[in-house]
Amino acid sequence: MPKTSSPSTTTTTRPFIFQQLYQLFTILYKYFQSTLFIKTQTPVTKASTTVHNSINLQYYKGKTLVLDLDETLVHSVRLGTTESTVNASIKKKTIEVTSDKQSILYEVYKRPHVDFFLSTISQWYKVVIFTASMSEYADPVIDWLDQDQTLISQRYFRQSCLLKNGNFLKDISIAESDLSKVCLIDNSPSAYELCQENAIPLPTWISNPKDDCLLDLLPLLDALRFTADVRSILSLRDPKHI
Ligand SMILES: [Mg+2]
């Protein structure tokens, strides 16, 4: 079952994360200029291009992107409880979950651009879903997001979370033990309490049909895959803003 969540559960706003991303980009650009691409200032020969590409490929290989599910990629409403406020233009699917011989219906809505986002990042990263929801609910939702079973490599559910003060914490080392190669995108700050240097906070999504947050993340994710250690970039943010 999805965790109860609301826009007020995160203090991050869209303009704020936009500002954060801009700052990160500035840092990334300077970083690449000063390290990885410094050789482009000298005449490029065939041999040097080969070396350069192999360096990029070395960093590119084996990065893992861990994604939260509810209010990050989708939003679900239990039918018969609250009236849905989600715009009718949003893609949705009704999912039936059986628990304790009871059938519960959920209307699941896709965050805008989620299909494009998943198909793009799956070409860059090994994509893992790590959700605090139960597998009985989350499995069919993930099946809907990845209908050809080609985008998402692994799934972790509530039983893989650590419960602390009523919050579900996510230990992403179960997905990738080398923390230099893994990022966690999550709308809930408590989820990345154990791995703040690896966190990419995302504003909670409930119903806004014009939400572009997933698209806004793509340039950052495109750049991060070429870093030797994602934490060297992500940890440069002010910890108060994580
Ligand atoms: Mg969430």
TrEMBL record:
Protein origin, superkingdom: Eukaryota
GO molecular function ontology, one term from the record: phosphatase activity
Record field: transmembrane: none
Gene3D superfamilies referenced in this protein's UniProt entry, alphabetically: HAD superfamily/HAD-like
Domain FCP1 homology: 58-224
NCBIfam families membership: HIF-SF_euk
Protein name: FCP1 homology domain-containing protein
Organism: Mucor circinelloides f. circinelloides (strain 1006PhL) (Mucormycosis agent)
